[in-house]
Amino acid sequence: MSFINPLKRAYLALEGGFNIAFGSEWNPLYNIGRLSFFFFWVVFISGLYLFIFFDTSLSGAYASVEYMTNEQWYAGGVMRSLHRYASDAAIITIVLHMFREFALGRYNGFRWFSWVTGVPTLWIVITLGITGYWLVWDELGLYVAMLSSQLIDGLPLIPGNMARNFVGNQVSDRFFTLMAFLHLLGQPLFFIFALWLHVKRLSHVKIYAPKGLAVGSFVALLALSLVTPAVSHDAADAGQVTAVLNLDWFYLNVYPLLDYFTAGQTWMITLSITLFLMLLPWFPPKKRDPAAEVHLDYCNGCEQCAEDCPYDAISVQARTDGAKFENEVTVNADLCASCGICVGSCPSSNPFRQKNEILETGIDMPQMPINEIRNRMDEAIKKLKGDSKIIILGCENALDFSKLEAPNVQIIRFFCSGMMPATLVEYALANGADGVFITGCRTGDCYYRFGNLWMDKRFEGSRQPILRRRADRTRIKVFRASATDGKSLRHELAAFQDHIKLLNINDEKTEQPEQAYE
Amino acid sequence: MNKVLRYGLQAFYYALFMLVVWYFSIKPAYHQLAEDQAVITLSFTHATNLREACRKLTQEELMKLAPNMRLPTDCPRERSPLRLELYLDDKLLTKTSAEPPGFYKDQAVNLFKRIKVIAGEHKLQFWMNDDVNVEGATYQYEKMVVLKPEQQLLVDFDKESGGFFAN
Fold this sequence. Notes:
Chain A has 518 residues and is α/β, with parallel strands linked by helices. Chain A has helices at 6-26, 32-53, 61-71, 73-103, 112-136, 139-153, 173-198, 211-227, 263-279, 304-308, 341-345, 370-383, 422-430, 451-460, 486-517; strands spanning 244-245, 293-294, 314-318, 327-331, 363-364, 390-395, 409-414, 435-440, 476-480.
């Protein structure tokens, strides 16, 4: 058995467990980024409501929050609780999102940009939460103000004594209003910019959670808000230091460090963790594979590859070679993930073409060109022996299926199941394979985001280039599996082999009378 | 899987998630102070004395300078470090030394320190030196204070008003 990172194994097991309850479409772990977006929407909408009633002055802030919490508990109170709990839930989903990408090895190589921009986005969210607690101006707000100021005072090159503003009776109303401005406008703008940057290298970005997941999460948040509404501490009193505080550990976890370290040391700890996380993609550095190459002689500018590219690496431009087509595509090598999905998207990647010549296509992977794929297929079919000859077409990033190879089972690996042209399946069946068994990442998850989804759509006939209707579906099996699903995969393959045997027997029975007739 | 069981399992996961959200949004409670403690907050900004006094330049030194730069005195900008000791009931509670900030160490020292103490009646004493050319204290302060639990006693310093004051 091949070695699988224990972290990856544990995470995949967890995802599998969630699949049982939620199915792949609503699995929160497959939609963890979208779920974070959902919580942000809840925070945004509830925040808009709170802003209507919130008094941004030092003297009025606490009273206005208390009014919403107690007098208007059915609306303002619920909104406040939704605002708080959705913010907390977002921290969990963001951290899980990071953990997932790390555990599944999806943070380095071409993904470095999303990872590196994601880490500071988390800090921006945390600072948003911090100013949010500040604005309530209760004992916790005072604590947050005081310790945040101590931290800022600990920064070099920023002279001043900001913490002094929060002792005695010298708190400035103007300063408080500045914090309100930061929380309500300044930081959200930064946050939106950070999010935009984070997803900049992705295409088809979805910022809405699947309906079922959104409804479930909202009902859960609402129930929590009604059962245990968010409440304030007593009003801030600069002459007092509250002994016991109910800290929100999702946002305020840094402050207790100041009991043990100076502000400078706390910054060092925080910045070291940030830097460590941001540099993770280069420990060790991951070698990048060659990018896809466009062959204009075989490109008619249909734009399907640009539409399918999960990383926005392919763009459309006016034709440059004088051919009769209007457009052509071009690949940005810096953005290319070398997933090969574009090869599967290109209608020219049809192995039935140029039968006795070198097969060329409109967009190809130099490390595994379409011609080599067809050659491998021809060789694999030649090697097949036995009564149920199966070709396995699989994604090498999903799981290790090399041990399934047998005299009657031959394997062809792809970078992604989306790289496989649909016509290749027909080609295998037409040239001697009894069945084609396709495997790749679990439904709802894909190492390259959309490879398995596009493949499914091509097979359904809803996305070009399609698997033609005349392809015998009874001899095609798609089984999605992750690195921990080896046992199920073997079981499914065995069942498929039995099924093919039966089909072969039935075919022989129906063919014999015809042969006799002839 | 049975639909009811599936939704039941989903409800369980949502409940578990919300339990984690709720718990860490307020718990475990953070004990900033013990119930019998108060806080002495030392907070002031003070420009310490210059390290060196202004010196009158000699004629020879002046002649070496460009005509428009010939100021009769040379006044180094660097200020003295601030050294401070706080005694509570004659026992040393904290000792701090701070260099003036800035590239030329010429800016005012900002001091902010929170010290947890047991509530009750105490003799509070401060000893401070803000001049390297003076041996011993340049400012001293002593006061009997009664601190209630969770009270914050602010100790400030203002040179113009004569030094330390606590309220």
